[in-house]
Amino acid sequence: MNKRVIIYILGWVLIVEGITMQIATITSLIYHEHEGLYFLITGAISAGLGTIAVKVKKPKNMVLYQKAGFAATALSWILLALVGALPLCISGEIPSYVDAFFEMSSGFSTTGATILTEVEHLSHTMLIWRSFSNWLGGMGVIVFLLALIPKLGGQQNIYLMRAESPGPIVGKAVPRMRNYAAMLYGIYIGLTVLELILLLCGGLGFFDAINTCFATAGTGGFGIRNENMAAYDTYYLQGVIASFLVLFGLNFSVYILLIARKFKQAFMMEELWVYLGVIVVSTVIITFNINHLYPTVHDSIHNSFFYVTSIISTAGFGIDDANRWPELSKAIILVLTFLGAMAGSTGGGFKVSRVIILFKEVKKEFALLVHPRNIKAVKLDGKTVDHNIMRSTSMYLVIYMGIFVGSFVLISIEGKDFLTSFTCVAACMNNTGPGLGEVGPVGNYAHFTIFSKCVLIFDMLAGRLEFLPMLLLFSPKAWKKA
Amino acid sequence: MDIVIVGCGKVGASIAVELNSAGHDIVVVDTNGSAVSRLADSIDAMGVEGNGATYEVLSEAGVSDADLVVAATARDEVNLYTCLMAKASGAKHTIARVRSPEYTDDLFRVKDLLGLSMSINPELTAAVEISRLLRFSGAIEIDAFSKGAIELIKVEIPEGSSACNRKLSDIDVLKGKVRIATVERGDEVYIPNGDFTILQGDRVTVVTKPETAIKFFKKMNINIGKSKDVMILGGGKISYYLAQRLIKTGANVKIIEQNAQRCEELSQKLPDAMIIHGDCMDQALLLSEGITHVDGVAALMDYDEENILISLYIKGVSKANIITKVNNQYFDSITDKLGLDCVINPKKLTGEYIARYIRAMQNSLGSNVETLYRLNENRIEALEFRAKNSSKLIAVPIEKLNLKDNLQIISIFRKGKIILPTGKDAIMPDDLVVVITKHKGLSDLDDIMSKR
Question: What are the φ/ψ torsions at residue A202 (nearest 5 degrees)?
């Protein structure tokens, strides 16, 4: 494994984090808070160490194979959360380092699970850093580096992209990786700014608006109010947020195709229609199911739509306590938690495209039962899905289930009720945030033991990177030279 | 530039690697999905799976905005059709790989009709390169200008050459038919003038017509070793093209081929060559056919391994100049160590050939550079310009031009004739002018004048 390249990439991660931390420092200057000092110091040290790693250990060749690419990405994310947690802990706002690490892991992995009971007690400095971690984690720090640094990862930089970008098939829409990464971030920033403008038009204060934008764009789910999104209590504001959740849950290649004026190709995507279809159907069912709880039909539709988009995009915003909803609605919410958004989006979860592929595989299997000699190609968007992709998708399901079962058993040790244990694991590994029961939209993760928190931290980071890169780190084989 | 490459085989891959490292944006297309992903993963390129001869796949690969489409699949017909379709879809330039001798000969008739910018024939390219090397076995590098009418030949001055320790102006250069363009000494490169003294061990680049070169080297006591008797092992396409060329220059060619039917074919097409039906790996056969006495051997069998092994064997028994065909580029580091005289990689050669063409094409956008070679490890550029009517240099004797330092006009190609200019000659409109220089980035003939 090319360890020097890994150190080089980690160095750049430190530099990027050190610099972006200064957003918090600037905020503290505006609001005359002293917490900015911790960010300034941590950022300076981080950027300094990063510069040393980049300059002193500059690798002779940038060749990077799959193994090293995956390991570098996994380590980058752990490092990101570890360093990001330092100011929170040092400043004393979240005294326990494990809690701070949990909060930042949740932030960068865009989970949005929090250990805070009173978010509003935090300083503005902390709040913006939490929200920003959602934003950076949404599109990913490695993609950011790929756009920033020429020749990062050499000719094989696709392995870095694959480790970070979600979905069963990760390719490029343009020849150069750097241009592609820059395009992704361009679209990402464009959509974020658009949402910011629309929220400001709705009369939201700038600080609230920018925090909400960061959390929406990354489909993270961090709010800066105790009541989360319920604090912005107009149809317009919550409608804008819900609509942008849908948009950020789209595969970004849809936007790239639209920009390239390849409308036919964009609208031919099966995943797009399944994703939108699931949103519509779920909203309709839940609307009928919860209609008696709300004064008007508008309210029911509004609540139902908001929560469906919030869960399927894996943001996990809340405007009402879903615990009081009927069982059918809760079941649908749970299913959506697992389903997640589209591949290549900023959302988490199992991904719609994987479900489509698995569904088609099952269909093929049934055809084989009836006609044992039947040979049938599985097609997606009119193209044959490679056997390798089908195999890896099936394997993904196995790994996904394995991690889920393992984490569930480990969380059960502390003896919480079934609903809480079950949904907290689901919410963390799918990067949604809130589950049901004690970890519902109005609850939080403060009451878990340190051990459970560590398990959930792993689930969040591993879930963001779709498990394989993180599992690779724990495989002794990966660290052998030959 | 945006370049689409259809076909991810060895040729397509080597073109992609070469062009990608030259900084172009590459999209690769192939019907074989795993070939696409293997190539697109190993270089920074985008891959598209599908039939590159169809409009749908080509447009997905972004052909309408592409500057160049290279069709390099295994089948000539597919390649030509792909180029036709690409041109119809809006590609600016197209290059097709056409390797069948029948088509290659006819191609000039339909080139314009098909809108082809260029056709490549890896086997022919390799044959040309091998025949050049066999012609001047002592040459380090040979580049051609003005449609092959003039060549730049790089040789090392050996001990006892009559050029040693003499000023350039003293060396009889066949009454101005030969020029010495550059001299490489140690790590330095010079563009010499008349006062420059040649030393033993200098690597000089000589500019001349191909036929004059032999005379010159003979006169200078430089043993350039023309191969008169050449044995070709294997009777594939390269062998055919090579034999054809060698026979034209008057060499005796002997081809050994294992397949009897192929032997028949070759003997029909090459009546002047001697065709032997037998196993090239059979050492007794090689000895009985006089492998110890030939001047040149080209090992051009299908398998790289066989070519390498037999070349090593021949090296032990014969003084012949041996050229070994190796297709697999991963063998490069191994063949280097084996001490083989000369290794030819046709696929890689094609990649470089196209890359050079594209470089010239890029140069010719907004400039009037026709050909560009980088010599002496990129420190010297040899550029070919077409003189325009509007140029300030027209009809001015060269001695009166205020040329830049480290720059020489080495040849003028006018109406099918080569002129190696002296101070009295002048450039006329429509001349092809070859300039050699240490300056980089000249884009117009007028750039050769000093600014002062």
Answer: -80, 10
